[in-house]
Automatic annotation (TrEMBL):
The keyword Chaperone is annotated on this UniProt entry: no
Entry keyword set: Hydrolase
Species per Swiss-Prot/TrEMBL record: Mucilaginibacter yixingensis
Domain of life: Bacteria
SUPFAM superfamilies: alpha/beta-Hydrolases
Keyword Amino-acid biosynthesis tagged: no
Residue ranges annotated for the BD-FAE-like domain, each copy included: 46-200
A molecular-function term among this protein's GO annotations: hydrolase activity
Protein name: Carboxylesterase family protein
Gene3D superfamilies noted in UniProt: alpha/beta hydrolase (3.40.50.1820)
Pfam families for the chain: BD-FAE (PF20434)
Amino acid sequence: MMVGTVTMAQGKRYKDLLFDKADVLTDQPYAADTTSAANRKANLFDLYTPHNDEVRNRPLIIWMHGGGFVFGSKRDDNIRLWSETFARRGYVCAAIDYRMGKKSTLFSFGKLIQAAYPAVLDARQAVRYFKEHAAKFGIDPNRIILAGNSAGAMMALQAAFSNNRELADSLRIKNPAGFGTVNDGPTKVMAVVNFWGGIYNINWLKNEPTPVVSVYGSKDKIVHPGVNKGTYGGQAIYEKAKALKRPDDVKVFEGYGHELYRHFNPLPLHPGKAGIRRRWLEAGQFAADFLAKLI
Protein backbone atom coordinates (compact mmCIF):
# COMPACT_ATOMS: atom_id res chain seq x y z
CA MET A 1 0.00 0.00 0.00
CA MET A 2 1.08 3.64 -0.53
CA VAL A 3 1.07 6.35 2.14
CA GLY A 4 2.27 9.66 0.72
CA THR A 5 5.45 8.77 -1.16
CA VAL A 6 6.49 5.81 0.99
CA THR A 7 5.73 2.23 0.18
CA MET A 8 4.39 0.36 3.21
CA ALA A 9 4.25 -3.38 3.75
CA GLN A 10 0.94 -4.99 4.57
CA GLY A 11 0.31 -5.40 8.27
CA LYS A 12 -0.88 -3.67 11.41
CA ARG A 13 0.55 -0.34 12.48
CA TYR A 14 2.47 -0.50 15.78
CA LYS A 15 2.77 -4.27 15.50
CA ASP A 16 4.41 -4.98 12.13
CA LEU A 17 7.32 -3.46 10.21
CA LEU A 18 5.39 -1.27 7.79
CA PHE A 19 7.94 1.38 6.81
CA ASP A 20 11.06 0.63 4.80
CA LYS A 21 13.28 2.78 7.02
CA ALA A 22 13.43 5.30 9.85
CA ASP A 23 14.71 8.86 9.74
CA VAL A 24 17.09 9.85 12.53
CA LEU A 25 17.67 13.26 14.09
CA THR A 26 20.70 13.16 16.40
CA ASP A 27 21.97 14.90 19.54
CA GLN A 28 18.98 17.02 20.50
CA PRO A 29 18.72 18.42 24.07
CA TYR A 30 15.79 17.40 26.27
CA ALA A 31 16.75 19.31 29.43
CA ALA A 32 17.02 23.04 29.98
CA ASP A 33 19.48 22.57 32.84
CA THR A 34 22.88 23.22 31.31
CA THR A 35 24.75 23.95 34.53
CA SER A 36 27.71 21.89 33.43
CA ALA A 37 29.27 20.54 30.27
CA ALA A 38 28.71 17.02 31.58
CA ASN A 39 24.97 17.62 31.93
CA ARG A 40 24.76 19.17 28.48
CA LYS A 41 26.33 16.06 27.02
CA ALA A 42 24.27 13.66 29.14
CA ASN A 43 20.83 15.08 28.41
CA LEU A 44 20.68 14.49 24.66
CA PHE A 45 18.41 12.32 22.53
CA ASP A 46 18.33 10.81 19.05
CA LEU A 47 14.87 10.84 17.46
CA TYR A 48 13.72 8.03 15.15
CA THR A 49 10.61 8.57 13.02
CA PRO A 50 8.96 6.50 10.27
CA HIS A 51 10.24 7.68 6.88
CA ASN A 52 7.67 9.90 5.12
CA ASP A 53 4.97 9.10 7.65
CA GLU A 54 2.00 11.45 7.32
CA VAL A 55 0.29 10.35 10.54
CA ARG A 56 0.55 12.71 13.51
CA ASN A 57 -0.40 12.17 17.15
CA ARG A 58 1.73 9.01 17.31
CA PRO A 59 2.81 7.07 20.40
CA LEU A 60 6.32 7.82 21.64
CA ILE A 61 8.75 5.29 23.10
CA ILE A 62 11.61 6.69 25.18
CA TRP A 63 14.44 4.14 25.04
CA MET A 64 17.09 4.08 27.80
CA HIS A 65 20.30 2.12 27.48
CA GLY A 66 21.86 -0.30 29.94
CA GLY A 67 25.34 -0.36 31.38
CA GLY A 68 24.96 -0.46 35.16
CA PHE A 69 24.57 3.35 35.35
CA VAL A 70 28.26 3.77 34.50
CA PHE A 71 28.58 2.56 30.89
CA GLY A 72 26.52 2.68 27.73
CA SER A 73 25.11 5.11 25.22
CA LYS A 74 21.96 5.95 23.30
CA ARG A 75 23.82 4.59 20.29
CA ASP A 76 24.39 1.12 21.70
CA ASP A 77 23.58 -1.48 19.06
CA ASN A 78 20.49 -2.81 20.82
CA ILE A 79 19.04 0.66 21.45
CA ARG A 80 19.56 1.62 17.81
CA LEU A 81 18.03 -1.70 16.71
CA TRP A 82 14.89 -1.28 18.81
CA SER A 83 14.54 2.43 18.03
CA GLU A 84 14.76 1.79 14.31
CA THR A 85 12.45 -1.21 14.22
CA PHE A 86 9.80 0.38 16.41
CA ALA A 87 9.92 3.53 14.28
CA ARG A 88 9.37 1.32 11.25
CA ARG A 89 6.25 0.04 13.03
CA GLY A 90 4.92 3.60 13.21
CA TYR A 91 6.17 4.83 16.58
CA VAL A 92 8.29 7.86 17.26
CA CYS A 93 11.29 6.72 19.32
CA ALA A 94 13.62 8.85 21.41
CA ALA A 95 16.86 7.19 22.51
CA ILE A 96 18.23 9.22 25.40
CA ASP A 97 21.51 9.59 27.21
CA TYR A 98 21.36 10.40 30.92
CA ARG A 99 23.57 11.20 33.89
CA MET A 100 25.68 8.26 35.03
CA GLY A 101 27.83 7.46 38.04
CA LYS A 102 31.58 7.16 38.24
CA LYS A 103 33.20 4.00 36.93
CA SER A 104 34.96 3.67 40.29
CA THR A 105 31.60 2.63 41.80
CA LEU A 106 31.34 -0.40 39.53
CA PHE A 107 32.36 -2.86 42.23
CA SER A 108 30.33 -1.27 45.02
CA PHE A 109 26.72 -2.39 44.64
CA GLY A 110 25.41 0.23 47.07
CA LYS A 111 27.10 3.15 45.31
CA LEU A 112 26.27 1.66 41.93
CA ILE A 113 22.52 1.65 42.44
CA GLN A 114 22.66 5.14 43.96
CA ALA A 115 23.59 6.33 40.48
CA ALA A 116 20.06 5.32 39.49
CA TYR A 117 18.61 8.36 41.25
CA PRO A 118 19.82 11.15 38.92
CA ALA A 119 19.18 8.84 35.96
CA VAL A 120 15.52 8.47 37.01
CA LEU A 121 15.24 12.25 37.34
CA ASP A 122 16.49 12.50 33.77
CA ALA A 123 13.88 9.99 32.60
CA ARG A 124 11.17 12.10 34.23
CA GLN A 125 12.59 15.21 32.57
CA ALA A 126 12.54 13.50 29.17
CA VAL A 127 8.84 12.69 29.60
CA ARG A 128 8.10 16.29 30.58
CA TYR A 129 10.04 17.59 27.59
CA PHE A 130 8.17 15.46 25.07
CA LYS A 131 4.79 16.24 26.60
CA GLU A 132 5.59 19.94 26.26
CA HIS A 133 6.81 19.53 22.65
CA ALA A 134 4.32 16.90 21.50
CA ALA A 135 3.05 18.92 18.53
CA LYS A 136 6.58 19.59 17.29
CA PHE A 137 7.38 15.88 17.05
CA GLY A 138 3.94 14.64 16.02
CA ILE A 139 3.36 12.59 19.16
CA ASP A 140 0.43 11.96 21.48
CA PRO A 141 1.39 13.22 24.96
CA ASN A 142 -1.01 10.69 26.50
CA ARG A 143 0.69 7.74 24.80
CA ILE A 144 4.27 7.84 26.02
CA ILE A 145 6.03 4.57 26.82
CA LEU A 146 9.19 4.19 28.92
CA ALA A 147 11.45 1.38 27.73
CA GLY A 148 14.94 0.14 28.39
CA ASN A 149 17.29 -2.74 28.96
CA SER A 150 19.07 -3.54 32.23
CA ALA A 151 19.81 -0.20 33.96
CA GLY A 152 17.58 1.53 31.42
CA ALA A 153 14.70 -0.77 32.32
CA MET A 154 15.32 -0.03 35.99
CA MET A 155 15.04 3.66 35.21
CA ALA A 156 11.75 3.06 33.42
CA LEU A 157 10.30 1.07 36.31
CA GLN A 158 11.38 3.44 39.08
CA ALA A 159 10.20 6.48 37.10
CA ALA A 160 6.79 4.95 36.42
CA PHE A 161 6.06 3.57 39.89
CA SER A 162 8.06 5.42 42.57
CA ASN A 163 8.12 8.98 43.80
CA ASN A 164 11.44 10.73 44.25
CA ARG A 165 11.28 10.79 48.04
CA GLU A 166 10.72 7.06 48.46
CA LEU A 167 13.27 6.29 45.76
CA ALA A 168 15.90 8.45 47.50
CA ASP A 169 15.11 6.78 50.82
CA SER A 170 15.34 3.33 49.25
CA LEU A 171 18.73 4.11 47.72
CA ARG A 172 19.93 5.87 50.88
CA ILE A 173 20.64 9.10 49.06
CA LYS A 174 21.78 11.60 51.73
CA ASN A 175 21.20 14.75 49.68
CA PRO A 176 18.63 14.04 46.95
CA ALA A 177 18.14 17.77 46.38
CA GLY A 178 21.69 17.84 45.06
CA PHE A 179 20.51 15.95 41.98
CA GLY A 180 17.33 17.95 41.37
CA THR A 181 13.75 18.13 42.60
CA VAL A 182 12.67 15.69 45.31
CA ASN A 183 8.91 16.22 44.99
CA ASP A 184 8.03 14.40 41.77
CA GLY A 185 5.62 11.50 42.00
CA PRO A 186 5.38 8.54 39.63
CA THR A 187 5.65 9.64 36.01
CA LYS A 188 2.38 9.07 34.15
CA VAL A 189 3.06 6.92 31.10
CA MET A 190 1.02 4.48 29.01
CA ALA A 191 3.26 1.44 29.56
CA VAL A 192 6.72 0.21 30.52
CA VAL A 193 8.95 -2.11 28.48
CA ASN A 194 11.21 -3.94 30.92
CA PHE A 195 14.04 -5.78 29.20
CA TRP A 196 15.91 -7.68 31.96
CA GLY A 197 15.60 -4.93 34.55
CA GLY A 198 14.04 -4.76 37.99
CA ILE A 199 12.22 -2.59 40.52
CA TYR A 200 13.65 -1.78 43.95
CA ASN A 201 10.39 -2.18 45.89
CA ILE A 202 7.76 -4.58 44.56
CA ASN A 203 5.02 -2.75 46.47
CA TRP A 204 5.60 0.35 44.34
CA LEU A 205 3.64 -1.45 41.62
CA LYS A 206 0.54 -0.56 43.62
CA ASN A 207 1.23 3.14 43.06
CA GLU A 208 0.13 3.15 39.43
CA PRO A 209 -1.88 0.81 37.13
CA THR A 210 0.69 1.19 34.31
CA PRO A 211 1.06 -2.11 32.37
CA VAL A 212 4.54 -3.68 32.16
CA VAL A 213 5.82 -6.07 29.52
CA SER A 214 8.94 -7.91 30.71
CA VAL A 215 11.54 -10.03 28.96
CA TYR A 216 14.46 -11.81 30.64
CA GLY A 217 16.81 -14.76 30.39
CA SER A 218 16.17 -17.63 32.79
CA LYS A 219 19.84 -17.74 33.81
CA ASP A 220 20.33 -14.01 34.33
CA LYS A 221 22.82 -13.56 37.19
CA ILE A 222 23.16 -9.78 36.82
CA VAL A 223 19.52 -8.87 37.44
CA HIS A 224 17.91 -11.96 38.92
CA PRO A 225 14.43 -12.63 37.49
CA GLY A 226 13.14 -13.13 41.04
CA VAL A 227 14.50 -11.29 44.06
CA ASN A 228 18.18 -10.58 44.70
CA LYS A 229 19.99 -7.80 46.60
CA GLY A 230 16.80 -5.82 47.01
CA THR A 231 15.91 -5.86 43.31
CA TYR A 232 12.77 -7.54 41.99
CA GLY A 233 13.22 -8.80 38.43
CA GLY A 234 10.85 -9.62 35.61
CA GLN A 235 9.48 -12.83 37.13
CA ALA A 236 8.69 -11.13 40.46
CA ILE A 237 7.10 -8.17 38.67
CA TYR A 238 4.87 -10.44 36.59
CA GLU A 239 3.77 -12.48 39.61
CA LYS A 240 2.90 -9.31 41.51
CA ALA A 241 0.99 -8.03 38.49
CA LYS A 242 -1.11 -11.19 38.41
CA ALA A 243 -1.93 -10.73 42.09
CA LEU A 244 -2.99 -7.16 41.31
CA LYS A 245 -5.07 -8.43 38.33
CA ARG A 246 -3.17 -6.30 35.82
CA PRO A 247 -2.67 -7.07 32.12
CA ASP A 248 1.15 -7.41 32.29
CA ASP A 249 2.93 -10.04 30.22
CA VAL A 250 6.33 -11.73 30.28
CA LYS A 251 8.58 -13.69 27.95
CA VAL A 252 11.38 -15.92 29.22
CA PHE A 253 14.37 -16.96 27.12
CA GLU A 254 15.26 -20.31 28.61
CA GLY A 255 18.96 -20.99 29.08
CA TYR A 256 20.11 -17.42 28.42
CA GLY A 257 21.58 -14.83 30.75
CA HIS A 258 21.76 -11.07 30.93
CA GLU A 259 21.19 -9.15 27.68
CA LEU A 260 20.04 -12.54 26.30
CA TYR A 261 23.64 -13.76 26.03
CA ARG A 262 24.44 -17.41 26.55
CA HIS A 263 27.40 -16.32 28.71
CA PHE A 264 27.20 -12.62 29.54
CA ASN A 265 30.50 -10.75 29.48
CA PRO A 266 30.17 -6.96 29.51
CA LEU A 267 33.82 -6.36 28.67
CA PRO A 268 33.56 -6.38 25.74
CA LEU A 269 30.04 -6.79 24.41
CA HIS A 270 29.59 -8.70 21.17
CA PRO A 271 26.22 -7.45 19.88
CA GLY A 272 27.06 -8.29 16.29
CA LYS A 273 26.56 -12.01 16.78
CA ALA A 274 23.59 -13.18 14.76
CA GLY A 275 22.01 -15.16 17.60
CA ILE A 276 22.03 -12.22 20.00
CA ARG A 277 20.57 -9.87 17.40
CA ARG A 278 17.86 -12.42 16.59
CA ARG A 279 16.90 -12.67 20.28
CA TRP A 280 16.85 -8.87 20.64
CA LEU A 281 14.52 -8.68 17.62
CA GLU A 282 12.33 -11.42 19.09
CA ALA A 283 12.15 -9.53 22.40
CA GLY A 284 11.19 -6.40 20.48
CA GLN A 285 8.45 -8.17 18.58
CA PHE A 286 7.02 -9.59 21.82
CA ALA A 287 6.90 -6.09 23.31
CA ALA A 288 5.39 -4.70 20.09
CA ASP A 289 2.62 -7.31 20.16
CA PHE A 290 1.85 -6.37 23.77
CA LEU A 291 1.84 -2.62 23.11
CA ALA A 292 -0.31 -2.96 19.99
CA LYS A 293 -3.09 -4.42 22.14
CA LEU A 294 -2.99 -1.31 24.36
CA ILE A 295 -3.01 1.08 21.42
